[in-house]
Amino acid sequence: MTTVRVALxxxxxxxxxxxxxxxxxWPRVLQTRDDASPWQVPSVILRPGEQxxxxxxxxxxxxxxxxxxxxxxxxxxxxxxxxxFPEDLTLVVDGGWSVxxxxxxxxxxxxxxxxxxxxxxxWAHAHETDSTAVVTALSAxxxxxxxxxxxxGAHRA
Length: 157
Known about the structure:
This protein has a single domain (3-152), classed as Nucleoside Triphosphate Pyrophosphohydrolase. Helices cover 15% and strands 32% of the residues. The chain has two helices and eight strands, in the order βββαββββαβ. Strands 1, 2, 3, 4, 5, 6, 7 and 8 form an eight-stranded mixed beta sheet that branches. The longest helix is centred in the middle third of the chain and has 12 residues, at 52-63. It is globular and about 45 Å long.
């Protein structure tokens, strides 16, 4: 059985007055975690019969955000099944950009998450996510380019 995860890509540009200008550097992406998990782009498991944007809306609501008007799946990542893991399909949805007021602290510093007191959130470089799909999705979001990419990730160890 395949687990379908909907990840919400929320990004913070280095220059909010010109969010698509990357001359000052690439935007940071929002990551969350609880005490026992690694940092990741915020996401939920898609419920049976649930629409993708409804799941993305659940993530946005938990973070105190609103989805942008343009609903886009920016990238898809597929990880094949492994011994203790089912096949995993992640849809990275455009969560828009933010000036970062709901995440306090400097880039890379953790702060408490609005969704759950035991959760933390931070702004991090996209390459820190270890996900080609997130990097591809960020590029598509910033450049306003269509990017529906299927990336078959490596087998899990």
